[in-house]
Design goal:
3 domains; alpha+beta; Uridine Diphospho-n-acetylenolpyruvylglucosamine Reductase, domain 2
Length: 339
Protein backbone atom coordinates (compact mmCIF):
# COMPACT_ATOMS: atom_id res chain seq x y z
CA UNK A 1 0.00 0.00 0.00
CA UNK A 2 1.52 3.30 -1.07
CA UNK A 3 1.87 6.13 1.43
CA UNK A 4 1.80 9.64 -0.03
CA UNK A 5 3.16 12.33 2.29
CA UNK A 6 2.91 16.11 2.01
CA UNK A 7 5.37 19.00 2.35
CA UNK A 8 8.46 16.79 2.77
CA UNK A 9 12.01 18.20 2.91
CA UNK A 10 14.23 16.91 0.12
CA UNK A 11 17.50 17.68 1.93
CA UNK A 12 18.13 13.97 2.76
CA UNK A 13 17.34 12.99 -0.83
CA UNK A 14 19.85 15.10 -2.80
CA UNK A 15 23.63 15.01 -2.45
CA UNK A 16 23.94 18.79 -2.74
CA UNK A 17 21.99 18.93 0.54
CA UNK A 18 19.60 21.60 -0.75
CA UNK A 19 16.72 22.16 1.67
CA UNK A 20 13.70 22.43 -0.59
CA UNK A 21 10.32 20.74 -0.13
CA UNK A 22 8.18 18.45 -2.24
CA UNK A 23 4.46 19.16 -2.29
CA UNK A 24 3.90 15.37 -2.30
CA UNK A 25 6.37 12.55 -1.66
CA UNK A 26 6.12 8.78 -1.88
CA UNK A 27 8.56 5.91 -1.29
CA UNK A 28 8.22 3.27 -4.02
CA UNK A 29 9.47 -0.15 -2.86
CA UNK A 30 8.27 -2.40 -5.69
CA UNK A 31 7.13 -2.28 -9.29
CA UNK A 32 3.64 -3.17 -8.07
CA UNK A 33 3.63 -0.11 -5.79
CA UNK A 34 4.74 2.06 -8.70
CA UNK A 35 1.94 0.75 -10.91
CA UNK A 36 -0.49 1.47 -8.05
CA UNK A 37 0.91 5.00 -7.73
CA UNK A 38 0.65 5.88 -11.43
CA UNK A 39 -3.03 4.96 -11.40
CA UNK A 40 -3.89 7.54 -8.72
CA UNK A 41 -5.53 10.84 -9.69
CA UNK A 42 -2.88 12.73 -7.75
CA UNK A 43 -0.05 11.22 -9.81
CA UNK A 44 -1.92 11.77 -13.08
CA UNK A 45 -2.75 15.41 -12.35
CA UNK A 46 0.36 16.73 -10.60
CA UNK A 47 3.80 17.49 -11.91
CA UNK A 48 5.97 14.46 -11.12
CA UNK A 49 9.59 13.43 -10.72
CA UNK A 50 11.27 10.07 -10.15
CA UNK A 51 14.14 10.48 -7.69
CA UNK A 52 16.88 7.94 -7.08
CA UNK A 53 20.02 8.71 -5.11
CA UNK A 54 19.73 12.44 -5.83
CA UNK A 55 23.39 12.51 -6.86
CA UNK A 56 22.87 14.14 -10.24
CA UNK A 57 20.27 16.78 -9.48
CA UNK A 58 20.14 20.41 -8.39
CA UNK A 59 16.94 21.76 -6.88
CA UNK A 60 16.65 25.53 -7.24
CA UNK A 61 13.19 25.76 -5.66
CA UNK A 62 10.46 23.73 -3.99
CA UNK A 63 9.04 20.97 -6.17
CA UNK A 64 5.38 21.76 -6.87
CA UNK A 65 4.22 18.21 -7.56
CA UNK A 66 4.83 14.63 -6.49
CA UNK A 67 8.23 12.98 -6.11
CA UNK A 68 8.41 9.18 -6.23
CA UNK A 69 11.56 8.06 -4.44
CA UNK A 70 12.94 4.84 -5.90
CA UNK A 71 13.51 2.27 -3.15
CA UNK A 72 13.15 -0.90 -5.27
CA UNK A 73 15.99 -3.22 -4.21
CA UNK A 74 17.22 -6.67 -5.19
CA UNK A 75 19.32 -8.45 -7.83
CA UNK A 76 19.57 -11.88 -9.44
CA UNK A 77 21.45 -13.80 -12.12
CA UNK A 78 18.86 -14.39 -14.84
CA UNK A 79 21.16 -16.35 -17.15
CA UNK A 80 24.79 -17.41 -17.37
CA UNK A 81 27.15 -19.53 -19.39
CA UNK A 82 30.84 -20.31 -19.18
CA UNK A 83 31.87 -16.81 -20.30
CA UNK A 84 29.09 -14.43 -19.29
CA UNK A 85 26.77 -13.65 -16.39
CA UNK A 86 23.54 -11.72 -16.99
CA UNK A 87 22.72 -9.84 -13.79
CA UNK A 88 19.33 -8.16 -13.41
CA UNK A 89 19.42 -5.40 -10.81
CA UNK A 90 16.43 -3.48 -9.49
CA UNK A 91 16.76 0.22 -10.03
CA UNK A 92 16.75 1.44 -6.42
CA UNK A 93 19.99 -0.39 -5.57
CA UNK A 94 23.05 1.79 -5.02
CA UNK A 95 25.31 1.62 -8.07
CA UNK A 96 28.58 1.31 -6.14
CA UNK A 97 27.18 -1.59 -4.08
CA UNK A 98 26.47 -3.46 -7.31
CA UNK A 99 29.96 -2.74 -8.64
CA UNK A 100 31.44 -4.15 -5.44
CA UNK A 101 29.18 -7.23 -5.69
CA UNK A 102 30.43 -7.86 -9.24
CA UNK A 103 34.08 -7.34 -8.34
CA UNK A 104 33.77 -9.75 -5.41
CA UNK A 105 32.31 -12.37 -7.75
CA UNK A 106 34.99 -11.68 -10.40
CA UNK A 107 32.44 -10.48 -12.93
CA UNK A 108 34.06 -7.91 -15.19
CA UNK A 109 32.81 -4.89 -17.08
CA UNK A 110 31.95 -2.18 -14.56
CA UNK A 111 35.02 -2.03 -12.32
CA UNK A 112 36.07 1.30 -13.91
CA UNK A 113 32.75 2.72 -12.72
CA UNK A 114 33.51 2.19 -9.04
CA UNK A 115 32.47 4.80 -6.46
CA UNK A 116 30.03 6.61 -8.75
CA UNK A 117 27.19 7.76 -6.49
CA UNK A 118 23.53 7.24 -7.21
CA UNK A 119 21.24 4.35 -8.00
CA UNK A 120 21.20 1.71 -10.72
CA UNK A 121 18.15 3.35 -12.30
CA UNK A 122 20.11 6.51 -13.01
CA UNK A 123 22.95 4.60 -14.71
CA UNK A 124 21.26 4.04 -18.09
CA UNK A 125 19.41 7.35 -17.93
CA UNK A 126 22.69 9.26 -17.73
CA UNK A 127 24.77 6.60 -19.49
CA UNK A 128 27.21 7.02 -16.63
CA UNK A 129 30.87 6.74 -17.50
CA UNK A 130 34.35 7.10 -16.07
CA UNK A 131 37.94 6.20 -16.91
CA UNK A 132 37.27 5.06 -20.46
CA UNK A 133 34.12 3.00 -19.79
CA UNK A 134 30.43 3.80 -20.25
CA UNK A 135 27.61 1.73 -18.79
CA UNK A 136 26.03 1.26 -22.22
CA UNK A 137 28.86 -1.19 -23.00
CA UNK A 138 27.43 -3.71 -20.52
CA UNK A 139 23.68 -3.08 -20.64
CA UNK A 140 21.67 -5.94 -22.12
CA UNK A 141 18.26 -4.38 -21.55
CA UNK A 142 16.35 -1.88 -19.44
CA UNK A 143 12.86 -2.52 -18.07
CA UNK A 144 10.69 0.49 -17.37
CA UNK A 145 7.14 1.39 -16.41
CA UNK A 146 5.27 3.87 -18.60
CA UNK A 147 4.02 6.55 -16.23
CA UNK A 148 0.91 7.37 -18.22
CA UNK A 149 -0.39 3.79 -18.38
CA UNK A 150 1.46 1.62 -15.84
CA UNK A 151 2.53 -0.65 -18.71
CA UNK A 152 5.90 -2.41 -18.34
CA UNK A 153 8.17 -2.12 -21.40
CA UNK A 154 11.54 -3.69 -22.14
CA UNK A 155 14.17 -1.65 -24.00
CA UNK A 156 17.04 -3.45 -25.74
CA UNK A 157 20.41 -1.69 -25.69
CA UNK A 158 20.00 -0.07 -29.12
CA UNK A 159 16.52 1.17 -28.25
CA UNK A 160 17.99 3.18 -25.36
CA UNK A 161 19.73 5.54 -27.84
CA UNK A 162 22.79 5.94 -25.66
CA UNK A 163 25.09 8.91 -26.20
CA UNK A 164 27.64 10.80 -24.14
CA UNK A 165 25.83 11.15 -20.77
CA UNK A 166 22.61 10.76 -22.74
CA UNK A 167 19.86 8.24 -23.40
CA UNK A 168 16.32 8.09 -24.70
CA UNK A 169 15.17 8.34 -21.06
CA UNK A 170 16.84 11.72 -20.70
CA UNK A 171 15.62 13.07 -24.04
CA UNK A 172 12.71 11.67 -26.11
CA UNK A 173 11.16 9.81 -23.15
CA UNK A 174 12.14 12.24 -20.40
CA UNK A 175 9.78 11.93 -17.40
CA UNK A 176 7.65 9.39 -19.30
CA UNK A 177 9.14 6.16 -17.90
CA UNK A 178 10.28 4.86 -14.52
CA UNK A 179 13.27 2.53 -14.94
CA UNK A 180 12.51 -0.50 -12.77
CA UNK A 181 15.48 -2.79 -13.54
CA UNK A 182 18.65 -3.04 -15.59
CA UNK A 183 20.22 -6.25 -16.90
CA UNK A 184 24.02 -6.16 -17.15
CA UNK A 185 26.19 -8.42 -19.31
CA UNK A 186 29.33 -9.24 -17.34
CA UNK A 187 32.41 -11.28 -18.24
CA UNK A 188 33.30 -14.28 -16.06
CA UNK A 189 36.75 -14.80 -17.57
CA UNK A 190 39.12 -13.25 -20.12
CA UNK A 191 38.19 -9.82 -18.76
CA UNK A 192 38.89 -6.77 -20.89
CA UNK A 193 41.04 -4.75 -18.50
CA UNK A 194 40.92 -1.04 -19.31
CA UNK A 195 43.70 1.04 -17.77
CA UNK A 196 44.31 3.48 -20.61
CA UNK A 197 42.27 6.46 -19.38
CA UNK A 198 43.18 9.01 -16.74
CA UNK A 199 45.48 8.09 -13.88
CA UNK A 200 44.65 4.37 -13.59
CA UNK A 201 47.92 3.07 -15.06
CA UNK A 202 49.97 5.51 -12.96
CA UNK A 203 48.08 4.56 -9.80
CA UNK A 204 48.49 0.83 -10.47
CA UNK A 205 52.23 1.39 -11.01
CA UNK A 206 52.48 3.11 -7.62
CA UNK A 207 50.67 0.08 -6.17
CA UNK A 208 53.37 -2.15 -7.78
CA UNK A 209 50.79 -3.94 -9.92
CA UNK A 210 51.87 -4.92 -13.44
CA UNK A 211 49.16 -7.43 -14.36
CA UNK A 212 45.99 -5.92 -12.90
CA UNK A 213 42.82 -7.84 -12.08
CA UNK A 214 39.38 -6.26 -12.13
CA UNK A 215 39.69 -5.80 -8.36
CA UNK A 216 43.00 -3.99 -8.82
CA UNK A 217 41.38 -1.64 -11.34
CA UNK A 218 38.44 -1.03 -9.01
CA UNK A 219 40.80 -0.33 -6.10
CA UNK A 220 42.77 2.13 -8.23
CA UNK A 221 39.63 3.96 -9.36
CA UNK A 222 38.37 4.18 -5.77
CA UNK A 223 41.73 5.57 -4.67
CA UNK A 224 41.75 8.18 -7.44
CA UNK A 225 38.16 9.27 -6.91
CA UNK A 226 38.54 9.40 -3.11
CA UNK A 227 41.56 11.68 -3.42
CA UNK A 228 39.98 14.02 -5.98
CA UNK A 229 36.29 14.12 -5.13
CA UNK A 230 34.70 15.25 -1.87
CA UNK A 231 32.37 12.96 0.08
CA UNK A 232 28.88 14.42 -0.36
CA UNK A 233 28.03 13.34 3.20
CA UNK A 234 30.62 15.85 4.41
CA UNK A 235 30.54 18.46 1.63
CA UNK A 236 27.42 18.72 -0.52
CA UNK A 237 28.09 18.13 -4.21
CA UNK A 238 26.85 16.22 -7.24
CA UNK A 239 30.18 15.02 -8.59
CA UNK A 240 31.09 16.35 -12.03
CA UNK A 241 28.76 19.27 -12.67
CA UNK A 242 29.64 19.70 -16.34
CA UNK A 243 30.09 17.39 -19.31
CA UNK A 244 33.44 17.27 -21.08
CA UNK A 245 32.73 19.21 -24.28
CA UNK A 246 33.30 17.69 -27.72
CA UNK A 247 34.54 20.12 -30.37
CA UNK A 248 35.38 19.75 -34.04
CA UNK A 249 38.87 18.96 -35.30
CA UNK A 250 38.97 22.42 -36.87
CA UNK A 251 38.05 24.18 -33.63
CA UNK A 252 40.56 22.10 -31.71
CA UNK A 253 43.37 22.99 -34.14
CA UNK A 254 42.65 26.68 -33.55
CA UNK A 255 42.51 26.12 -29.80
CA UNK A 256 45.86 24.34 -29.85
CA UNK A 257 47.55 27.35 -31.44
CA UNK A 258 46.83 29.51 -28.39
CA UNK A 259 46.95 26.68 -25.83
CA UNK A 260 49.50 24.06 -27.01
CA UNK A 261 49.29 22.06 -23.78
CA UNK A 262 45.51 21.56 -23.86
CA UNK A 263 44.71 17.95 -22.90
CA UNK A 264 42.38 16.11 -25.25
CA UNK A 265 40.91 12.75 -26.22
CA UNK A 266 39.46 11.36 -29.43
CA UNK A 267 35.66 11.48 -29.61
CA UNK A 268 32.98 10.29 -32.01
CA UNK A 269 32.27 13.78 -33.33
CA UNK A 270 35.76 15.26 -33.07
CA UNK A 271 37.88 15.98 -29.99
CA UNK A 272 36.91 15.87 -26.32
CA UNK A 273 38.48 18.50 -24.06
CA UNK A 274 38.34 18.09 -20.26
CA UNK A 275 35.90 20.60 -18.79
CA UNK A 276 37.88 20.61 -15.55
CA UNK A 277 40.97 21.88 -17.39
CA UNK A 278 39.00 24.65 -19.10
CA UNK A 279 37.48 25.77 -15.79
CA UNK A 280 40.85 25.67 -14.03
CA UNK A 281 42.46 27.79 -16.77
CA UNK A 282 39.80 30.43 -16.09
CA UNK A 283 40.90 30.61 -12.46
CA UNK A 284 37.86 29.04 -10.80
CA UNK A 285 39.48 26.08 -9.06
CA UNK A 286 39.35 26.47 -5.28
CA UNK A 287 37.31 29.70 -5.38
CA UNK A 288 34.63 30.17 -2.72
CA UNK A 289 31.70 32.59 -2.66
CA UNK A 290 29.74 32.70 0.60
CA UNK A 291 28.14 29.23 0.83
CA UNK A 292 29.26 27.86 -2.55
CA UNK A 293 32.49 27.21 -4.37
CA UNK A 294 34.59 25.19 -6.80
CA UNK A 295 36.37 22.27 -5.19
CA UNK A 296 40.08 22.80 -4.56
CA UNK A 297 41.11 19.39 -5.94
CA UNK A 298 38.72 19.08 -8.89
CA UNK A 299 37.43 22.07 -10.82
CA UNK A 300 34.52 20.05 -12.26
CA UNK A 301 32.92 19.81 -8.82
CA UNK A 302 30.75 22.59 -7.41
CA UNK A 303 30.21 22.36 -3.67
CA UNK A 304 27.79 23.48 -0.98
CA UNK A 305 29.83 24.74 1.98
CA UNK A 306 26.85 25.05 4.28
CA UNK A 307 23.39 26.44 3.79
CA UNK A 308 23.64 27.22 0.08
CA UNK A 309 20.50 27.54 -1.99
CA UNK A 310 20.16 25.83 -5.33
CA UNK A 311 19.99 29.26 -6.96
CA UNK A 312 23.43 30.14 -5.55
CA UNK A 313 24.96 27.01 -7.05
CA UNK A 314 23.17 27.54 -10.37
CA UNK A 315 24.36 31.16 -10.49
CA UNK A 316 27.96 30.03 -9.97
CA UNK A 317 27.56 27.46 -12.76
CA UNK A 318 26.29 30.17 -15.14
CA UNK A 319 29.25 32.40 -14.35
CA UNK A 320 31.66 29.53 -15.05
CA UNK A 321 29.93 28.78 -18.36
CA UNK A 322 30.23 32.44 -19.41
CA UNK A 323 33.86 32.63 -18.34
CA UNK A 324 34.89 29.49 -20.27
CA UNK A 325 33.04 30.64 -23.39
CA UNK A 326 34.67 34.06 -23.27
CA UNK A 327 38.17 32.56 -23.01
CA UNK A 328 37.88 29.48 -25.25
CA UNK A 329 34.69 29.95 -27.33
CA UNK A 330 33.52 26.62 -25.90
CA UNK A 331 30.11 26.30 -24.25
CA UNK A 332 29.96 23.97 -21.25
CA UNK A 333 26.80 21.96 -20.66
CA UNK A 334 25.69 20.85 -17.19
CA UNK A 335 25.72 17.09 -16.58
CA UNK A 336 23.52 17.68 -13.55
CA UNK A 337 19.73 17.86 -14.00
CA UNK A 338 18.41 21.21 -12.81
CA UNK A 339 14.92 21.71 -11.36
Amino acid sequence: MINIQENISLRPYNTFGIDVKAKYFCQVKSTAELIELVQTDLFRNERRLILGGGSNILFTKDFDGIIAHNSILGKEIVHENGDTAFLEVNSGALWHDIVMHCVQNNWGGIENLSLIPGTVGAAPMQNIGAYGVEVREVIEKVEAVELSTGRVKSFANKECKFGYRESIFKNDLKEKFFISSVTLTLSKKNHRINTSYGAIAETLSKMNITQPTIKNVSDAVIKIRSEKLPDFKILGNAGSFFKNPEISEEQFSKLQIDFPSVPHYSANQGVKVPAGWLIEQCGWKGKTFDHVGVHAKQALVLVNYGEASGDEIFSLAQKIISSVHEKFLITLTPEVNIF
